[in-house]
Specification:
Number of helices: 11
Structural class: alpha/beta
Bound molecules: 6-O-phosphono-beta-D-fructofuranose
CATH architecture of the largest domain: 3-Layer(aba) Sandwich
Radius of gyration: 22 Å
Shape: elongated
Order of helices and strands: EHEHEEEHEHEHEHEHEHEHEEHH
CATH class of the largest domain: Alpha Beta
Largest sheet: 7 strands, mixed
Helix content: 25-40%
């Protein structure tokens, strides 16, 4: 593709935050400035493009090297984010009632009003779908994938996942100490939406005894059997890691109340549901810990800092080369670009027959089957 003339680009972060977003922002700003481009940071995902005065004067703002000098090691995103700002299905209040309207034309008009020649959109599958539709309306967008869930099939890894797994592993280590002291069964519920990657990797790294993931619906009896056998062989404690999206073989995923307008359905309660079902079958005491948003914060691991930096610099290259409507992705050892629509096509799910699950089974981890 032909090189294009660029003077000013925008960058925004959308969807749930994750460690490594600031590494991307820093890399984009440093590389763009080295090329002589201006960078405008867009506040709270598309909110800053739906309304140019959104949160002014701290809203949309120019970003230079000084603004990103100390952000590499920080979790969160200095630009703010939102997972309820889809301009194609934007929720507004009218006469006290909520209604959904399409404000995408306003986003396109404001993109031009800011004098942007291109936009870097950092986000998960939802943000990439929005980016694809905005690209269809003529905006020159390059996508950068992120999510702690590791559920985007188009890239080997997303940044954020490695840090989240480390956080969950640290939690297991701590739970093990107190489980041993009290002869208890500890359930740790982790995030991941419909993918079991965080649960599986943390269970492996933390030496858990049971791991329950969405891809392998579980039965109670094998879990009870694992805990009983451990107790009878002189280990009167067990660690269970359960993904928030896990479900019993004869039941559904558990969700929090009715779905809010413009929001994803919220998974909630998998760990407590398992605890209530398990306790009557156990002589040991049981406790449940829901790790929740602790997995989303914190300083990124070196892996996530490096991947975020590589994605950020690659996004600037993609803009310079005119690869609009594309997303950067890791195909180890390279960073490639692929059309954003392809990027949204495949979810990455744990393969129940894959080597990772097999390795876990080989070291005795029970998946609630058998
Ligand atoms: O997609 C990232 C994620 O953290 C999921 O693992 C989780 O289900 C969801 O976001 C939580 O979203 P929220 O921050 O809206 O509660």
């Amino acid at each position: 593709m032909a090189a294009v003339s660029i003077r000013r680009i925008g960058i925004m972060t959308g969807g749930g935050d994750c460690p490594g977003l600031n590494a991307v922002i820093r890399a984009v700003v440093l590389k763009a400035h080295a090329r002589g481009w201006e960078v405008i940071g867009i506040e709270d995902a598309t909110n800053g493009l739906i309304d140019l005065d959104y949160k002014a004067p701290r809203g949309n703002r120019p970003l230079g090297p000084d603004d990103v000098d100390d952000i590499l090691t920080r979790g969160g995103t200095i630009l703010g984010t939102s997972n309820r700002s889809d301009p194609f299905e934007y929720v507004v209040k009218k006469d006290g009632e909520q209604e959904v309207i399409d404000v995408s034309d306003r986003v396109v008009a404001n993109y031009h009003a800011l004098g942007l020649d291109a936009l870097v959109s950092v986000g998960g599958d939802g943000s990439m779908r929005i980016a694809h539709r905005l690209a269809d309306k003529g905006m020159r967008i390059v996508g950068v994938p992120k999510t702690i869930d590791q559920d985007l099939g188009a890239t080997d890894y997303t940044f954020g996942f490695n840090t989240a797994v480390q956080t969950a592993t640290d939690a297991i280590d701590r739970l093990r100490d107190t489980a041993i002291s009290h002869d208890r069964v500890m359930i740790l519920e982790v995030m991941g939406r419909n993918a079991g990657w965080i649960a599986l990797c943390a269970a492996l790294a933390g030496g858990a005894h049971v791991c329950l993931i969405p891809e392998i619906p579980y039965r109670l009896e094998p879990v009870v059997g694992t805990i009983r056998r451990r107790r009878e062989s002189g280990h009167p404690f067990s660690i269970i890691v359960i993904a928030e999206g896990a479900r019993p073989a004869d039941g559904q995923q558990s969700f929090e109340g009715p779905r809010k307008l413009g929001a994803m359905p919220k998974l909630f309660g998998a760990g407590y549901r398992l605890g209530e079902a398990l306790q009557p079958h156990l002589v040991l005491d049981l406790r449940v810990t829901v790790l929740g948003h602790i997995q989303r914060g914190g300083s990124p691991t070196q892996f996530d800092r490096i991947l975020g930096t590589r994605f950020g610099t690659a996004a600037v290259d993609a803009i310079a080369e005119g690869k609009f409507g594309h997303m950067v992705a890791l195909r180890t050892p390279d960073i490639i670009t692929i059309p954003i629509e392809q990027a949204c096509a495949n979810e990455r799910r744990v393969d129940p027959t894959g080597q990772l699950v097999q390795a876990a089974r080989d070291v005795g981890i029970c998946f609630g089957q058998g």
